[in-house]
Write a structure and sequence with these properties.
Layout: H1 3-14, E1 19-21, H2 25-42, H3 56-61, H4 72-77, E2 85-87
Antiparallel strand pairs: 1-2
This protein binds iron/sulfur cluster (SF4).
């Protein structure tokens, strides 16, 4: 998948949801680059902002999009850990 395809997949993922892609396009670009780099290196589209511990279990938790609504940063700041997804209307 290339950068624009991934951006479109994520845009579709946010449609009809209470969150959207961060309007800061350069931040979204950075996350996309990091995820695609991880896909090349590790074969999985892993979050670029969180640390792997080398186990398969942890890797599966870090596939983007993760279960970000369970993160405390979502409740406190209305964004996922990387800031890729943000609450609408904030
Ligand atoms: S924190 Fe954000 S960027 Fe990282 S995996 Fe979760 S949804 Fe993706």
């Amino acid at each position: 998948m290339n950068k624009e395809e991934l951006r479109r997949v994520w845009e579709r993922f946010t449609e009809k949801n209470d969150f959207m892609l961060n309007p800061d396009k350069s931040l979204v670009d950075m996350v996309i680059d990091g995820v695609l780099e991880n896909e090349k290196k590790h074969g999985l589209m892993l979050c670029p902002c969180r640390l792997r511990d080398g186990t398969r279990e942890k890797d599966l938790e870090l596939i983007c999009p993760c279960n970000f609504k369970a993160q405390s940063v979502w409740k406190d700041k209305g964004r996922c850990w990387c800031g890729l997804f943000v609450k609408r209307g904030e």
